Amino acid sequence: MDTIKEYYARIKKAGRTLIKGDDADALRREIPAITNSEVHEAKQFFPLEKFFIFGHARSGTTLLTRLVRVHPKVHCNYQGHFFTRPPTLEALVNSEQIGQWLARRSNRWNQGRDLSPLVLRTVCDFIMERDAHRVGKADRDCRVGDKSPNSLLDREAVHLLVKTYPDARLIYIVRDGRDAVLSHRFQAFIDIEHSLTEGDRRLREEFTRDPQPFLSGQRSIFTEKGLRRAAEGWVRNVTATDSAARALYGEKYLALRYEDLLADPLTTLLDLWAFLGVDTADPRLEKALDTELQSNPDADWQRKKAGDLIAAVEKGKAGSWQELFTGRDRQIFQEIAGTVLADWGYE
Prior knowledge:
The protein is an alpha/beta fold. Helices cover 54% and strands 8% of the residues. The protein folds into 2 domains: 1-30; 31-343, Rossmann fold, CATH 3.40.50.300. It contains 16 helices and 5 strands. The protein has a 5-stranded parallel β-sheet, sandwiched between helices. Helix 7 crosses helix 10 and helix 10 packs parallel to helix 16. It is globular.
């Protein structure tokens, strides 16, 4: 029966190629999820427990990464984008040719099953544990994680993650959407000036020439279309990621707010380390956390790159939107995101 199905599938594929040409998308295939027995096998070679930090862009994922890894048994790096930005990890094995090779019946190494899930797991495990070894955090009781914002794939990132890491822990950090899109706006002014629309470039030039009206909420830093799109993206990311994570990870999922991290970093991190299953009684943790909070390398780098462009904007501050949003900005964001803001305690 399988041979007949394969035969008809090949005929269908050949016909599609004759009609439409050699379409690269037609060569993509669905990757099976890893099984529990395969997870057990992988852990015999790569034993460290894994965690992943997701979040909308400019929601504090970098700060959280810097703080969580001050624990002597926790390492976290960024941004692998294994599951959060195309091409994802699955691109390594999602062609039909690779699939035929990894699942070939004459291949005695695969034990009659497509090897793709184990290949993906092994690649990701090696990259992460290699880095943990580099920093001396490779004991079996250590934890290693990756932080990658998932704004581009939203809930799909969670679904891709659980196919390869059903045993991992997922952390999702949320920031007030108004501050998140405002921070992302300034990042675009600095990092992707070449990709700005004509209207955006005009706003950037006017802000550079005379920032005061923008900083006092008299003029908007956004075009209306751009702000609506940004608000919709934040709502989609927060609602879709959180609902998928709760459904797929249950007790292995933790959501936290950026503002709570700023207000009480010690309590937030103690809860997070407990969630990861590492010791929180070490008296050195508080001092290590305080020391890390004294520096802000991301802000220093951004100031150096931006020059005077954002000199008057305090990076990472909570509530900046209250000073920079115009009345129109507030109305638009409330219209689109008001319910979600309230759900997360921002209204």
